[in-house]
Write a sequence for this structure.
């Protein structure tokens, strides 16, 4: 962001893609794409899954998966023709040396059996004549530049010993070490959570700008890449529908598809679902969940990992409550514990005034009928061997009062309520798209008219335009059926759309909770602030859509000693900073707030 | 139907199916009709050349080779099919219980199966036959036990991986019992690898039965099986190679057919081809 962006408009063209067509057998997945990348600029290539954006990136390096072929058009790098089937030798020299590539999953692009150092040296030996000690120096320097601590020791470790974010930084270091002229980053941070994503992309941009490397940043997330890109190119179903300077694309999108993408990225005006007054429907008190690692031969208990520690929360009837945190924060585990999928080691869960776990098994089963789940992954949450109608009808299996015909009618009504057609009852899940499958999962959950839905990242596996559809569907259905929802998500802006109150988790502990507007306007805990600043979003302003930098109020963390969940042994209290706004503070400072 | 078309549309699927149908047809025909009585010897007509009367000639006792091969096909195939029953049923039960309920039962079972699998299947079968006795029932029981671990492990593995799917958890949250979830949601999704394994196993059992008979531990003569026809021919192999060659060719055709069909089935049913759920398909 802070780097200068004065790339002259007629700057030297580094890469030119002309009228490119890529086909798999007879099906063209990329059609007539024209694209130029100038030296040192960052071009974002945006589109949803299946739009062909990754295929363009791969074709530049001649790495199309079988049976993909460039069937038409040219790719030129500088003055050299590098269209893949014609000049394999020229391409081989360019790879690594002049064009670097970063994939989405760093675990599979780093060789698991080779130490980090060896992998970094390998490319240098191949492409340069530096001596071993020079190469080593250079590798250490690069690791420092991607802000990894103690690089000397890192070189001797294996990829699996690092977190996803660190692996991706190592990947960036080893690719940028050769100072390529062009870097192709294919969804480099999609597998990472928001905070780490921001770090990694910042580092990548900084290094690229410092070295004058041009970047093609391929992503499905317009809001994320808008921060870094000089220009944006939008793909839809193999066609380049729009390209232009970032600001112009954001403020004056020409193509309807770009407009749709922008709308989806902004998610409209927040309209959280507030609950009704009175006794909470769900009350969790001091919940703790442990995971025990398998010990010797699986017979002896191994290391105990505290997934959730002393978390309390409430959900009012009809209220949408958000549970946010990055991966590993324990947010999903809480949802699973409420459903009875994961046993808790401490605390109480009360549903509709009755404590779960204290009832007879028949009564408990009956009570649990009123809690249903919508899972994250619509591809694994539907049994592939069952037809849609049967999948949804199964939600009514324990309602013995209904006749066969009534069930059938309920299924058909539910299908229509979630925006599908009655005919889909006879299809199998594989014939449906991801969004349609998630609608089926929602229908299955809602058909029993539950009082509480646990939604575990229900839209994070979907494309942004589909996300928006599913979220507005959830809102509409809430108005119709009146259920409450515990909404688990890593995406703050999604929960902002839906939830009246938010709970922020870190390392299994509650960091902060407040009404959604309060939390966004005045976040207190440093961790919440970090989460907020890491989530980019687009905002409607007077001259069109802008990239909004989240304006954070004055940081008071040097005044108040907030609890740091990365040091879990510190004692801490939850303190009510103001009515309904709770924040974790280190124990000895508890009184000073 | 479309599945059958896809399967037979591949060269290996089609060739395998044709070979297997030929073997099965011969076997079932051999059970009810053979040109001559396969057990009746004619000592005046030993080692007859192939001709009009005896298409494949006669053996050292003057018995018609074609008739013996046909009846032998029935004996071998019927033993092969009967041997599949026990491992498939018991293996599925054990594997499903171990994979889904886990716990001490799973650990104990895996330890026993690992120990069993440390020995070659044929060796286990040989040992068991020494106890049960060298007859048709003995062969079936011995081979059943020898192949039980393979089925159990495959089913357990599939149950473990299918259980990771969210639709299994969704079933739990809906209040379905564990048994219902296992029977309705998990086992139907484990059928594909089980079908492939069963097909392949049929081939292994045919080969193992031949091997046992060849060693004189299988079906006792004079009743013919492909293995003991081969065994009897070995004394005369130098002068009458056809006697050994013919049962060998029969075994080879059956095995090749089964393997080709099994490969085609695997390609068609493999999780990665999209017919069954797997993380890779996403």
């Amino acid at each position: 962001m802070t780097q200068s962006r004065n790339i002259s408009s007629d700057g030297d063209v580094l890469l030119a893609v002309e009228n490119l067509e890529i086909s798999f057998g007879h099906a063209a997945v990329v059609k007539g794409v024209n694209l130029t990348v100038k030296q040192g600029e960052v071009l974002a290539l945006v589109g949803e899954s299946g739009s062909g954006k990754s295929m363009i990136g791969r074709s530049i390096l001649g790495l199309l998966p079988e049976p993909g072929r460039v069937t038409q058009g040219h790719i030129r790098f500088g003055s050299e023709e590098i269209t893949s089937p014609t000049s394999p030798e020229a391409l081989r020299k360019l790879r690594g040396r002049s064009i670097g590539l970063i994939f989405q999953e760093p675990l599979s692009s780093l060789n698991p059996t080779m130490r980090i150092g060896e992998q970094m040296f390998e490319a240098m030996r191949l492409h340069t004549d530096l001596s071993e000690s020079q190469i080593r120096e250079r590798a250490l320097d690069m690791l420092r530049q991607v802000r990894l601590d103690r690089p000397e020791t890192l070189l001797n470790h294996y990829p699996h010993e690092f977190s996803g974010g660190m692996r991706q930084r190592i990947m960036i270091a080893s690719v940028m070490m050769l100072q390529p002229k062009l870097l192709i980053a294919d969804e480099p941070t999609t597998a990472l959570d928001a905070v780490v994503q921001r770090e990694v992309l910042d580092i990548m941009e900084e290094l690229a700008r410092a070295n004058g490397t041009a970047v093609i940043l391929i992503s499905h997330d317009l809001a994320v890449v808008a921060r870094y890109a000089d220009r944006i190119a939008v793909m839809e179903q193999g066609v380049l529908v729009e390209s232009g300077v970032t600001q112009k694309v954001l403020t004056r999108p020409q193509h309807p598809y770009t407009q749709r993408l922008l709308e989806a990225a902004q998610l409209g005006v927040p309209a959280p679902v507030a609950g009704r007054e009175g006794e909470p429907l769900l009350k969790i008190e001091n919940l703790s969940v442990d995971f025990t690692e398998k010990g010797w031969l699986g017979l002896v208990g191994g290391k105990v990992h505290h997934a959730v520690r002393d978390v309390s929360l409430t959900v009012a009837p009809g209220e949408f409550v958000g549970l946010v945190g990055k991966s590993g924060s324990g947010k999903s585990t809480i949802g699973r514990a409420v459903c009875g999928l994961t046993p808790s080691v401490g605390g109480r869960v009360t549903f509709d005034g009755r404590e779960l776990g204290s009832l007879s098994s028949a009564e408990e089963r009956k009570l649990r009928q009123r809690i249903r789940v919508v899972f994250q992954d619509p591809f694994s949450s539907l049994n592939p061997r069952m037809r849609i109608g049967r999948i949804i009808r199964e939600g009514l299996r324990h309602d013995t009062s209904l006749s066969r015909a009534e069930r059938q009618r309920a299924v058909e009504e539910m299908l229509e309520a979630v925006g599908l057609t009655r005919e889909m009852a006879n299809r199998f899940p594989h014939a449906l798209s991801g969004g349609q499958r998630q609608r089926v999962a929602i229908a299955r959950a809602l058909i029993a008219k539950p009082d509480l839905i646990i939604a575990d990242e229900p839209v994070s596996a979907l494309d942004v335009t589909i996300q928006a559809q599913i979220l507005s569907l959830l809102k509409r259905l809430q108005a119709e059926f009146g259920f409450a929802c515990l909404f688990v998500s890593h995406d703050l802006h999604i929960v902002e759309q839906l939830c009246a109150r938010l709970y922020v988790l870190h390392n299994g502990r509650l960091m902060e909770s407040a009404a959604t507007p309060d939390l966004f306007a005045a976040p207190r805990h440093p961790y919440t602030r970090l989460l907020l600043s890491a989530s980019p979003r687009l905002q409607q302003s007077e001259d069109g859509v802008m990239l909004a930098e989240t304006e954070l109020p004055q940081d008071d963390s040097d005044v108040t000693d907030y609890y740091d969940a990365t040091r879990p042994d510190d004692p801490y209290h939850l303190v009510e900073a103001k009515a309904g706004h709770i924040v974790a503070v280190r124990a000895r400072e508890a009184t000073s707030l | 139907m479309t599945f059958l078309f896809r399967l037979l549309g591949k060269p290996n699927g089609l060739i395998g199916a044709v070979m297997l149908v030929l073997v099965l047809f011969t076997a079932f025909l051999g059970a009810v009709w053979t040109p001559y009585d396969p057990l009746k010897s004619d000592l005046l007509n030993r080692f007859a050349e192939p001709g009009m009367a005896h298409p494949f000639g006669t053996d050292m006792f003057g018995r018609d080779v074609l008739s013996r091969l046909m009846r032998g096909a029935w004996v071998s195939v019927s033993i092969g099919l009967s041997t599949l029953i026990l491992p498939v049923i018991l293996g599925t039960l054990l594997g499903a219980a171990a994979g889904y309920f886990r716990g001490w039962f799973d650990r104990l079972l895996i330890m026993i199966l690992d120990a069993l699998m440390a020995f070659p299947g044929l060796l286990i079968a040989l040992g068991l036959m020494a106890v049960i006795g060298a007859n048709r029932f003995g062969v079936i029981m011995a081979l059943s036990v020898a192949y039980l671990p393979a089925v159990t492990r495959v089913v357990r593995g599939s149950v473990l991986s299918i259980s990771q799917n969210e639709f299994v958890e969704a079933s739990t949250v809906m209040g379905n019992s564990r048994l219902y979830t296992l029977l309705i949601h998990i086992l139907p999704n484990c059928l594909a690898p089980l079908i492939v394994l069963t097909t392949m196993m049929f081939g292994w059992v045919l080969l193992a039965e031949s091997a046992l008979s060849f060693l004189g531990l299988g079906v006792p003569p004079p009743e013919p099986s492909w293995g003991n026809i081969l065994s009897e021919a070995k004394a005369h192999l130098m002068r009458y190679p056809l006697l050994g060659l013919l049962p060998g060719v029969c075994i080879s055709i059956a095995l090749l057919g089964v393997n080709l069909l099994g490969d085609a089935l695997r390609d068609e049913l493999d999780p990665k081809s999209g017919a069954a759920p797997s993380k890779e398909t996403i």
